[in-house]
Amino acid sequence: MAGSIQSLERAAAILRLLAGGERRLGLSDVANALGLAKGTAHGILRTLQQEGFVEQDPDSGKYQLGAELLRLGQSYLDVHELRARALVWADDLARASGETVYLGVLHQRGVLIVHHVFRPDDTRQVLEVGSMQPLHSTALGKVLTAFDPVARAELVESEREAFTAHTVTDLDVIDAEAAAIRERGWAAAVEETWAGVASIGALIQDRRRNPVGAVALNGPVERVCTTGPDGRIGPVRPDLVVSVREAARAISRDLGAPRF
Amino acid sequence: MAGSIQSLERAAAILRLLAGGERRLGLSDVANALGLAKGTAHGILRTLQQEGFVEQDPDSGKYQLGAELLRLGQSYLDVHELRARALVWADDLARASGETVYLGVLHQRGVLIVHHVFRPDDTRQVLEVGSMQPLHSTALGKVLTAFDPVARAELVESEREAFTAHTVTDLDVIDAEAAAIRERGWAAAVEETWAGVASIGALIQDRRRNPVGAVALNGPVERVCTTGPDGRIGPVRPDLVVSVREAARAISRDLGAPRF
DNA sequence: AACATCGTTCGACAATGCCGACGCTGCTTT
DNA sequence: AAAGCAGCGTCGGCATTGTCGAACGATGTT
Predict the structure, then answer these.
(1) pLDDT in tens, B63-120
(2) For residues B139 and B199, is the Cβ–Cβ distance under 8 A?
(3) Residues A58 and A127 in one domain
(4) Range of the domain at B140
């Protein structure tokens, strides 16, 4: 694995730093954080600025991400085949279920949301496209870790934060559940990331049956889960599971996956 | 302006090529298009891939944009101050007017949409955030060219396609209208880009009164424009103009612009 | 089966980007 | 006010680093 272009690696590190860090960063901040000489960091930043990947506040001289990234990110979505095929089915799933639908792909140590259909009511919602969700505590993530060895490897490396009392962080428990997920073909996460929210997810495969992403339905536990006679929250509703699995199958078929 | 990092410039060119080109491109396509040796192009692509900026189809070996761009693009939005301040006001404007609202900033030779509020009805709409609109034939673009000298300079360089019979492409006419726009403080574009669609836009300024963006309302001419007694389409509705200008003023004030 | 094409690897050369020290400007301090 | 202090930007020498072109192996085409 020889020969990575140094200046490119550093430029990428700078972009990630700007993306993660607070608001804007000065030249010295950047140089310090990455252990570069100021002159070096400046050269990279100047080029990035010239190309539109970073912008510089005229007053303070501080740097932040540039607009070109937004444009390219949009282009990524335009080209994304999985997303294109899934648009209609995700929409149908949201309409039929009345809940939010996410479409995600594995990216580094998390699930990148590439499509988001709003819950079909009028409440205000924030578009999550482009944001990341954890691997260990969401339906999307669980599906991917269960079926994609790469995802499982990334999960091992990640830190598995406990978001709620229901979050499972123990690797053995996660692996056991992954086996069950492979068996039955779908995953659920009830209040494991956000309190009061449950999600159901299923796998999307391409024409060679490789896992390429997952589709999931998100909603309040009161609607997504069954309630026992004692009023307790039970497992997720079987009819919603069927809907999600059908959507996943339909998208996979659109991608050329064999018909089973 | 000495000292731009060559490999970075080339990497940026490759990304733009992948963003503009059709679907996926092979290594030779990329190398040819940019006049690079195959080995050189490969080195850059390998690094870009390692960093997540491009992905490679395992079968065909062809390259396409990578997911990291989507994530960074999202981060750009998160950091964007103008957008953050404008969210509420844009929402109000859409609700009050019942029409689509765009928020745009100058980027290269066009207007980059950084926020998009759907028309508040249930029809299916495509999110335009991250896409570009022309400078010469939209309300957003006209506002920016009228108030931002940089935008006007970019306009001169751009090619000004005639999208409809109403599109104005002559520079003198555009300049004359720009003067009028500066005078009255708002711009309109009626069927100049899309047939049947009219838009009204106004300028957003920062604390030092620099033009930093524009907000516009988009809708069908039947609703956005007045109709004369003979049923002909007239100028845009004055009440909508007032709403748009008030929204722009409110956002500018949030950014720290003086209160007039 | 021979050919063409494509992505990838490799080694040599020198161009290129890296580094550290030095201006410069704007702001706070004494 | 003068001095000090950060902060960004620039410059030139050095060697590291990226570039180039040719050759390789795999794939699929004629």
Answers:
(1) 999 999 999 999 999 888 899 999 999 999 999 999 999 999 999 999 999 999 999 8
(2) yes
(3) no
(4) 80-254
A117 lies in the same domain as A174: yes
Residues A143 and A214: beta-carbon distance below 8 Å: yes
A107-161 pLDDT, tens digit each: 999 999 999 999 988 677 889 999 999 999 999 999 999 999 999 999 999 999 9
DSSP-H helix ranges across A129-231: 139-147, 149-157, 171-184, 221-224
- What lies within 8 Å, CB to CB, of B123 at 6+ separation is none
In a domain, B39, yes or no: yes
A252: which 2 tokens?
């996979």
State the Cα–Cα distance between residues A206 and B231, nearest whole angstrom.
54
Shortest CA to C1' contact from A61: nucleotide: D8
- Chain A closest-CA separation from residue B195 CA (Å): 24
C-beta atoms surrounding A112 within 10 Å: 23
Cα–Cα distance, A132 to B174 (Å, whole number): 44
Q: Cβ contacts (< 8 Å) between B4 and chain A: which residues?
A: 46-47, 50
Between B75, B114, B122, which is nearest A65 by CB? Answer: B75
